[in-house]
Amino acid sequence: MEAWISALGWIGSVAVITAYALNSLQKIKSNSVSFQLLNLSGAVLLIINSVFKEAYPFTFINTVWAIIAIVSIIRIIQKQVAK
After folding, report:
1. What is the pTM of this model?
2. For residue range 11-49, what is the model confidence (pLDDT) as tens digits?
3. Distance, first Cα to last Cα, the chain
4. Which residues 6+ apart lie within 8 Å of 40 measured at CB?
């Protein structure tokens, strides 16, 4: 079980870093659903890992990260629907 949780944490880390790298290299925009989904999926996987490891400050920051991504996705979709 612990190996799976660690793997999820690593995958989450890669997702968040990938989102940041792609945005920094101007391959995807921060106001795109793909950028926000990478951030959201990474944050969720990191939340699972940090809860299991009882690293609650890390859980908190990733929960906030996930909420920001969810709000951003909703706003992006609302703008697309309004067009």
Report:
1. 0.92
2. 999 999 999 999 999 999 999 999 999 999 999 999 999
3. 46
4. 66, 69, 70, 73
What residue type is 36 in one-letter code?
A: Q
DSSP per-residue string spanning 40-78: HHHHHHHHHHHHHTT-HHHHHHHHHHHHHHHHHHHHHHH
Q: Which two tokens stand for residue 15?
A: 């997702």
- What is the C-alpha separation between 54 and 23, in angstroms, rounded? 31
CB 49 within 8 A of CB 41: no
Structural domain boundaries enclosing 30: 2-82
Task: State the total domains in the chain.
Answer: 1
